[in-house]
From TrEMBL, chain A:
Self-association state and partner proteins as the record states: Heterotrimer of A, B and C subunits.
Pfam families in UniProt: Amidase
Family: Belongs to the amidase family. GatA subfamily.
Protein's job: Allows the formation of correctly charged Gln-tRNA(Gln) through the transamidation of misacylated Glu-tRNA(Gln) in organisms which lack glutaminyl-tRNA synthetase. The reaction takes place in the presence of glutamine and ATP through an activated gamma-phospho-Glu-tRNA(Gln).
Spans through the membrane: none
PROSITE patterns in UniProt: AMIDASES
InterPro entries assigned: Amidase, Amidase_CS, Amidase_dom, AS_sf, GatA
Protein name: Glutamyl-tRNA(Gln) amidotransferase subunit A
Residues at the active site: K80, S155, S179
Keywords, alphabetical: ATP-binding, Ligase, Nucleotide-binding, Protein biosynthesis
Enzyme Commission designation: 6.3.5.7
TrEMBL record, chain B:
Keywords: ATP-binding, Ligase, Nucleotide-binding, Protein biosynthesis
Similarity field: Belongs to the GatC family.
Name this protein carries in UniProt: Aspartyl/glutamyl-tRNA(Asn/Gln) amidotransferase subunit C
Reaction catalysis annotation: L-aspartyl-tRNA(Asn) + L-glutamine + ATP + H2O = L-asparaginyl-tRNA(Asn) + L-glutamate + ADP + phosphate + 2 H(+); L-glutamyl-tRNA(Gln) + L-glutamine + ATP + H2O = L-glutaminyl-tRNA(Gln) + L-glutamate + ADP + phosphate + H(+)
Subunit structure: Heterotrimer of A, B and C subunits.
Entry's EC annotation: 6.3.5.-
Alphabetical list of Pfam families matching this protein: GatC
UniProt function note: Allows the formation of correctly charged Asn-tRNA(Asn) or Gln-tRNA(Gln) through the transamidation of misacylated Asp-tRNA(Asn) or Glu-tRNA(Gln) in organisms which lack either or both of asparaginyl-tRNA or glutaminyl-tRNA synthetases. The reaction takes place in the presence of glutamine and ATP through an activated phospho-Asp-tRNA(Asn) or phospho-Glu-tRNA(Gln).
Gene3D superfamilies: Glu-tRNAGln amidotransferase C subunit, N-terminal domain
Domain of life: Bacteria
Amino acid sequence: MSEIIRLTAAELGAKIAAGEVSSVEATRAHLDRIASVDGAVHAFLHVNDEGALAAAADVDRRRAAGEAFGPLAGVPIAIKDVLVTEGMPSTAGSRILEGWIPPYDATPVRLVREAGMIPLGKTNMDEFAMGSSTEHSAYGPTHNPWDLDRIPGGSGGGSAASVAAFEAPLALGSDTGGSIRQPAHVTGTVGVKPTYGAVSRYGSIALASSLDQIGPVTRTVLDAALLQDVIAGHDPHDSTSIPEAWPSMADAVRRADVAGVRIGVVKQLDSGGVQAGVRSRFHESLALLERNGAEIVEIDAPNFEYAIAAYYLILPAEASSNLAKFDSVRFGLRVTPEGGGTVEQVMAASREAGFGPEVKRRIILGTYALSAGYYDAYYGSAQKVRTLVQRDFENAFAKVDVLATPTAPTTAFKLGEKLDDPLAMYLNDVATIPANLAGVPGISLPAGLAPEDGLPVGIQFLAPARQDARLYNVGAALERLLEAEWGGPLLNRAPDLSSHEMAAAEEGVI
Amino acid sequence: MSEITAEQVAHLANLARIALTEEEIAHLTTELGQIMQAVEKVGEVATPDVPPTSHPIPMQNVFRDDVVGDDVLTAEQAVAGAPEADGSRFVVSAILGEEQ
């Protein structure tokens, strides 16, 4: 495996800045890796070979001409297919947008391009980000690089798997109920959902507008911080974007120190419902933080148990409205019924053919929750629960600086295991959803491998709104302590995919 | 309250403009009943004294001057990805059926 692809984004950026590696070399190394392992992983829906090499050559040329760049310039990046990209197909994992090439860049995409980063391509996801396993992608699932028979998490399984498989040093994701953090948990990577409004949603194909947030998917906490520093900031195109300036998250990582930090453990999310190995790694991490000066406090958040129910009313309600734009007129698929039809019939036929089962399920559910006579009982009550969850956070953050939870209840499950049981699938998000309801930021980083199955486990930290820097502080401190114990990053213990590929090829020959 | 009938699902599908098959309607009727039963849990704590929250970070009156920005799409760009367009306008199917 090429040395270049093993580097973190920060290391690669530094080598490019020092002239030891060119951006073209870095980009080609990652494109080669994609060519050799993505047949097995299927993290990408589109690979931007020529565009990426041209962009890399342009950055190399401008740097040679003396242009000044930031720390990630020249570094390749994978982009979740929920973000629209000029010149690259953008499908959000849906058949209804197959082949659509948007006429503009989403703001986070524009910002990474302006920072000199090189978009490698678009990553797989559950259709319109509805799911926890990527199995709801219209283009087939992504496979977890730790065990190809298992899910990579979702909805951003493609971004997480691309980073875990060393196909990209880092990626962009979106998190509506855990779609950045839960894939990080099951793939041994780092994922951050920033404060709602920290990163512009302009050009992000909306799932649930009051919950969606774009964020970094990386292998290290520093890389996530560097990427958040690139993409965060006010955008006049998104009226929910926070106008205040942000402190440097990378600085928070470099100064990381947990001495005196008060960490609250949410009682309701540290229960028997969590897999034994997930829970034991969680408690080992807490003990390690405590030995290094953090104070661990138990926190009661009684309304968190209502969060999933509220979420599965609010999300479908907002999604049913957002997805009305797929009307077979302005973009995407148009299916005309046999013998023609009115615009309404064409629309209904197009949506029937273009949407997958989970998307239909949630649109119908949302339409129901918003219908006359049920609105107060369902959508109205869910919005009240949202208030109660926010109050739980307020009470907690009056006592502690950050909260800690296992990121998800189990390690990666087998592909197909929960596909026919939507309620079981929804339970994956029990620990990640409260942050989206309250708009607060969250990070998941590797906490080790579960002893019973050898699969990665994540730990989640949550901070008050606008206090994203606290996550980077605690996350970076824990990462440093754990890597010292492990003797290196967790991903060093991931299986070597190139040998798997060779074995698969040999079997094919026989 | 969570009793959902196939007729209701068919009506919702019509409102949502999705031409579901009979089989899909039957399947969704069962699933929606189960899901609604689970999410009705919100009613346990959503008492009248709790105010609703629609948006996580409160913001009010986000205004801008009513002027055309400098990065708007041209008509050609806007229709470039449409299933059917005449160069500057979207082409749609007939609005009214023959019987209308």
